[in-house]
Amino acid sequence: LLQDVQKHSVHTLVFRSLKRTHDMFVSDHAKSIAKDDQSHKLKLGVKLKADYSAVLHMPILKEVKDRVYQQPSSVQDLSYAQTGEGLALTADTKVHRNPSEAGVHSMALALPPSQAKQEAIRTAASVTDIHRHIGGAERASSIMEGGTTRNSLVRKVPTIPKPQWHPPWKLFRVISGHLGWVRSIAVEPGNQWFVTGSADRTIKIWDLSSGKLKLSLTGHISTVRGVAVSHRSPYLFSCGEDKQVKCWDLEYNKVIRHYHGHLSAVYGLDLHPTIDVLVTCSRDATARVWDIRTKANAHTLTGHTNTVATVRCQAAEPQIITGSHDSTIRLWDLIAGKTRATLTNHKKSVRSVVLHPQQYTFASGSADNIKQWMFPDGNFIQNLSGHNAIINTLAVNSNGVLVSGADNGTIHLWDWRTGYNFQRIHAAVQPGSLDSESGIFACVFDSSESRLITAEADKTIKVYAEDNMATEESHPVNWKPEILKRKRF
């Protein structure tokens, strides 16, 4: 069997191996296929007719013509062409000569008016198509007028939307009883009574329907700056300039807990809506988070560089919002006890922050502006300008009525969505008070949102109600469409 195998020399085997290798690599598959001239010309002709048939009759620039259309020397003086690169000239696609001026005039006179108008419209449309392809739809279109070109930039200008109509508010009741400035208000969840804190160091509870005094609580040794009624338990919380934070049991009308920790006057407090947590803010530039039951200081929120004047809590993230005299607003992560975002748009002290009851937005009040923001990152929405005073308090209801109260005793009512100021109130001070004692320190809507309660510097509490007899015809919205001017800061 071995004898049948043909024996080859080494030279023959090497030669055969080289031949197989050569045959394997002789065809380079990555190399592009050679271009077929006839197919290329056909493709260009179809593309030319499909994409550029509308503008084939238009004049072309001389430099483009010299670069693209390589015409014979006998036709270099022609300015109109109807052919493309690589497309063979036929009897139907010969280069058309430019007619003389006399021929143009004679043709224009020969055309009927309607046909001449149609020709003009067709040509104008083609020019528009050219500009659309060159510069895009956002560029200004060139309009030929009397041989000159005018660029017209068309841009939609946003206009302020028409505000919702709100009935005007009028003074309904004046309640007297405090002996000092009334600094804070809170309404009980059942809407039966409300509580006020005053510079006379007392806390008073009033019947909401009649305005009569129900109870006075004493215990603070300085101005009571904040009060809050719990939705989850029969507790009332108060804080004051005596650095004290107290928890009152309303079944026994006495203090059952003290929360020690602040190093200076406590200016505000708020209760978390879903967990047993109390948050207070102070002149010591901190806000503190307290466990209501154990009195433990869960977090000390540091970062502000001046008095923290207001604090608000909500169930969603961010759960704590503070405003400070350092002109900033901070959004806090309650779990980590750290700042989530710092809003620096205000230029003056931020004394009040209010959360919208239905939307995921909030507003802040300062001497420079009222600003609206979007949660969770504090994106700026718009400015509400016009209340040129130190704004101490803000309140908003579900109908989109925002109320701002200022140090000069003025109250402005705004439409939340548009920022339109639909009413201004400057109530007279209580008889016997000085004219300078005209200031709004706090305001709040009751649970039904049909009453607005304000705490004032003339030692009174004023209750406002909507005018049920008012109609949109009798109190029209003095609204004029104008360019929307929203500052970015």
UniProtKB/TrEMBL annotation:
Domain of life of the organism encoding this protein: Eukaryota
The entry's keywords: Repeat, WD repeat
GO cellular component terms attached to this protein's record: catalytic step 2 spliceosome; precatalytic spliceosome; Prp19 complex
Keyword DNA-binding assigned: no
Family annotation (PROSITE patterns): WD_REPEATS_1, WD_REPEATS_2, WD_REPEATS_REGION
WD repeat start-end pairs: 175-216, 217-258, 259-300, 301-342, 384-424
InterPro entries linked to this entry: Prp46/PLRG1-like, WD40/YVTN_repeat-like_dom_sf, WD40_PAC1, WD40_repeat_CS, WD40_repeat_dom_sf, WD40_rpt
Listed GO biological process terms: mRNA splicing, via spliceosome
Bilayer-crossing regions: none
Entry-linked PANTHER family: PLEIOTROPIC REGULATOR 1 (PTHR19923:SF0), WD40 REPEAT PROTEINPRL1/PRL2-RELATED (PTHR19923)
Family per similarity comment: Belongs to the WD repeat PRL1/PRL2 family.
Cited function: Involved in pre-mRNA splicing as component of the spliceosome. Component of the PRP19-CDC5L complex that forms an integral part of the spliceosome and is required for activating pre-mRNA splicing. As a component of the minor spliceosome, involved in the splicing of U12-type introns in pre-mRNAs.
Subunit (UniProt): Identified in the spliceosome C complex. Component of the PRP19-CDC5L splicing complex composed of a core complex comprising a homotetramer of PRPF19, CDC5L, PLRG1 and BCAS2, and at least three less stably associated proteins CTNNBL1, CWC15 and HSPA8. Interacts (via its WD40 repeat domain) directly with CDC5L (via its C-terminal); the interaction is required for mRNA splicing but not for spliceosome assembly. Component of the minor spliceosome, which splices U12-type introns. Within this complex, interacts with CRIPT. Also interacts directly in the complex with BCAS2 and PRPF19.
Protein name per Swiss-Prot or TrEMBL: Pleiotropic regulator 1
UniProt source species: Takifugu rubripes (Japanese pufferfish)
High-level lineage: Eukaryota, Metazoa, Chordata, Craniata, Vertebrata
